[in-house]
Amino acid sequence: MLSSRKAWGLDLGLESAALAGDRRALARLLSHVENGAAEGRAALAALFSRTGRAHIIGITGSPGAGKSTLVGKLAQEIRAYGRRLAIVAVDPTSPFSGGALLGDRLRMRELASDEGVFIRSMASRGHPGGIAHATRDVVLLLDAIGFPVVIVETVGAGQAQVEVARVAHTVVLVEAPGMGDDVQALKAGLMEIADIIVVNKADRPEAKQTVRALQFVRRDMGSAGHHGAGALQPATEPVVLGWDPPILQTAAIESQGISELWDAIQAHRRYLEESGAWDVLRKRHARAEVESWLQRHLMLLLEERIGELRMNEAVDRVLRREQDPATAARNLLGAALEPDRDPIA
Amino acid sequence: MLSSRKAWGLDLGLESAALAGDRRALARLLSHVENGAAEGRAALAALFSRTGRAHIIGITGSPGAGKSTLVGKLAQEIRAYGRRLAIVAVDPTSPFSGGALLGDRLRMRELASDEGVFIRSMASRGHPGGIAHATRDVVLLLDAIGFPVVIVETVGAGQAQVEVARVAHTVVLVEAPGMGDDVQALKAGLMEIADIIVVNKADRPEAKQTVRALQFVRRDMGSAGHHGAGALQPATEPVVLGWDPPILQTAAIESQGISELWDAIQAHRRYLEESGAWDVLRKRHARAEVESWLQRHLMLLLEERIGELRMNEAVDRVLRREQDPATAARNLLGAALEPDRDPIA
After folding, report:
1. pLDDT tens-digit profile of A252-294?
2. Facing residue for B182 by CB, picked from A41, A93, A297
3. Buried-exposed string A43-57: b where 16+ CB fall within 10 A, e elsewhere
4. What are chain A's domains?
5. Which of A124, A320, B67, B294 satisfies CB 3.0 to 4.6 Å to B158 for a cystine?
6. Does B101 touch chain A (CB under 8 A)?
7. Complex ipTM
8. Is 0.80 topped by the overall pTM?
9. B92 touches chain A (CB under 8 A)
């Protein structure tokens, strides 16, 4: 009893300390949130009313496009205006996440020593409910703590980018020259979720060609409206009509084009607010959060109700080809949701 | 009544026709499976007892590594031994999926005209239950139809590669020189799921350096055992102990190293069978299939039980910050699983 009260005391202490700017308290709170621990869930519930104020910026693109360097320089630009910000690195190749080359990580250390910048790197695995759920919770907590800007860096390929789009207000797609010339590929999976397109390493000779290829794809997509790419199924329902994603050029290592990028990000936010799309996005985010928790509650409920024994028996029937997986799952579900049992633990 | 009987007749016709080698019937059946249609579910259930015989090979890696060309050449190699095979392209940059450059696609057309090769490209979106579920079903159906080899090509980054590992027996990781030099990144997300590592475009001068970097990482991982990478949380429990992933060099465009790759893939399969790991993998696949269907049944059940109205009300409470998403979801779930309602529709 004492230890439980003590645990509560500690918990409330962590929240207050994090709100007061204690970075170590915030880091510990985020670990609880990431691990799906009860303390994390309690903190999220307690602080939820404070969320909804941060501008959440997703930065995505192929490995090697220079996303992390760009994020670092963008952070410095934002700090030059005196704004505090948080960086969440979900990208396993990011120096923020301990990946990438040693030199990159040394450069990032400089940024990390700035009290106005909070950096959180997330392992791409080890989250009970999956990385997408964990990222959503981490971003919510950073929003609640009061960071006006939260940057989420993810490595981009298919599903991962769609997930970024579901958590961010503004999605920046970063490509490097040469890699971005595969026009069809870009069209298929990447550009329809981008609000701003950046050709990084623009000092390379191939950059012009990449910009032209991207302009071509954008024009081609234009007729279908942004976020809806012709015959392709759109990633999400179109929110922002009439916003034509600008194609910017940066050379992040040389700090070139960074202030233009920040201007474009702010212009996008203004556009969202003035067009009413900001409210549509907020509603969509709220829905995604509820759905995310529905999935997690359900899986926990099932694990508890079904149990390892019944699960193993079902798997064995499937292995012996006595039952197909869909039927086995339906039977497990039927047994787990028997009406004579209390539906919610 | 007539139309329903007619539909059943057509359905059984499709299955028999697909089993007899009718490619158009198979393509239509796969569309039903991909779309989650009732005909697809019925076909999977009816044909499930025929599954479990195909060698499922996952080919993954960064965009631009040359995966599709490698898959094409590997297919020709397999055909030279007279074996039939199916290729499932989940990679949006793959020419099989309509992505990539026109030249690539023309080269692939040659392969597609071979009656012994069946190519299925999957959109990365538009699957009711998500791309991972749809891929699993498509692979199962191709297995049931009797293809002894099924190659699954996915673009590799984080979660996507873990998903490949969950469906394949043998995972081939393809890297291009230069891109693979980011040792930490490889270590973090990629190498621990690879059974065979390929440095493609090995005619480039930087290839040697990439091979050395990969050898270094592999040695480093060796002490923790393959599939378990030191301090990192492993993607999956280790299945194959004692298998040291070979690092091969290929130049797919020049057809170099392809027969060595096929030899390595076959050696891996023999190793799986002799070590008993094949059975462990089969059991794991069966479990993943049951879990995949559990998730899908549940989401359908909830959509039906909760309904759009109650969902919108919950989202509005979250939007107004009256309730946090976790609490809103728990309440929705409680209402949906009320004991006075029939648990399974």
Report:
1. 999 999 999 999 999 999 999 999 999 999 999 999 899 888 8
2. A93
3. bbeebbeebbebbbb
4. 1-49 (no CATH), 51-275 (3.40.50.300), 276-345 (no CATH)
5. A124
6. yes
7. 0.77
8. no
9. yes
